């Protein structure tokens, strides 16, 4: 009996790598931009940085984040709340709404400023 799983798995990996390269070429986004986006999403999800009892209400539009984008980032932040920000590019890209994708491409170099405005996440 011949198993096709290794071949299928290899094809999936090749397709995934091709998809990642395509996203990077078409958008100009690099892995560091996606890591910054995940960190921003984690902050939008929990601006208090995971500190018990610290609840912050934030007007995300003051950071240039429209409400629909903030909602999408909050969902993303919930999913990766305690994860490393180095999530595969294609996985993140698929979860972004068109509005969030556009906002991300326009603000990719400014995301670190949002991170700097909030306390570090409590990772204990």
DSSP, total strands: 0
The portion of residues forming beta strands comes to under 5%
Average pLDDT score: 86
Sketch the topology as an H/E string, one letter per element: HHHHHH
Secondary-structure-derived class: mainly alpha
| Number of contiguous helices | 6
**Shape field:** globular
- Please outline the major beta sheet: none
Can you tell me the residue ranges where pLDDT is under 50 for at least 5 consecutive residues? none
Helicity level: 55-70%
Structural domain count: 1
Measured distance between first and last alpha carbons: 49 Å
Rg calculated over all Cα atoms = 17 Å
Task: Give a summary of the structure in a few sentences.
With 124 residues, the protein is mostly helical. The protein is built from six helices and no strands.
Written description of the protein model:
- There is one protein chain.
- This protein is mainly alpha-helical and 124 residues long.
- The chain has one domain (29-116).
- Helices cover 60% and strands 0% of the residues.
- The protein has 6 helices and no strands.
């Amino acid at each position: 009996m011949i198993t096709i799983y290794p071949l299928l798995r290899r094809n999936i990996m090749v397709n995934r790598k091709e998809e990642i390269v395509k996203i990077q070429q078409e958008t100009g986004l690099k892995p560091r931009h996606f890591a910054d986006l995940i960190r921003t999403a984690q902050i939008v999800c929990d601006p208090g940085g995971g500190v018990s009892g610290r609840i912050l209400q934030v007007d995300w539009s003051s950071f240039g984040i429209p409400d629909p984008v903030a909602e999408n980032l909050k969902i993303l932040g919930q999913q990766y709340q305690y994860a490393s920000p180095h999530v595969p590019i294609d996985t993140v890209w698929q979860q972004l709404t068109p509005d969030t994708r556009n906002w991300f491409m326009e603000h990719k170099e400014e995301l670190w400023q949002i991170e700097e405005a909030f306390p570090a996440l409590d990772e204990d």
